[in-house]
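stage 2 :: seqdesign
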């Protein structure tokens, strides 16, 4: 029986999740800093290009998979700390 805590199925989606994570974070950073002029089309194209390049590197996927849970835990801890 499949449960919500079973993470065996997530290994099939790691590349898609890493692609989406890099795409969203990079697009947000480019929009916020306006390095490329703040044009949404240009920022989106650059974010997609870098996200595709990340997919070709297995080391970068492993590093992102290693650090993402820690970043989420630290982020949740900081939110809870600010609420106190």
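stage 2 :: out
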């Amino acid at each position: 029986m499949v449960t919500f805590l079973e993470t065996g199925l997530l290994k099939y989606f790691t590349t898609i999740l890493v692609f989406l994570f890099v795409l969203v974070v990079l697009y947000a950073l480019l929009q916020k800093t306006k390095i490329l002029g703040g044009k949404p089309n240009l920022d989106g194209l650059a974010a997609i290009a870098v996200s595709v390049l990340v997919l070709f590197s297995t080391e970068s996927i492993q590093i992102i998979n290693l650090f993402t849970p820690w970043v989420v835990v630290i982020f949740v801890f900081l939110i809870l700390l600010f609420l106190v």
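stage 3 :: structure notes
- Residues 48 and 63 are 19 Å apart (CA to CA).
- The two ends are 40 Å apart (CA to CA).
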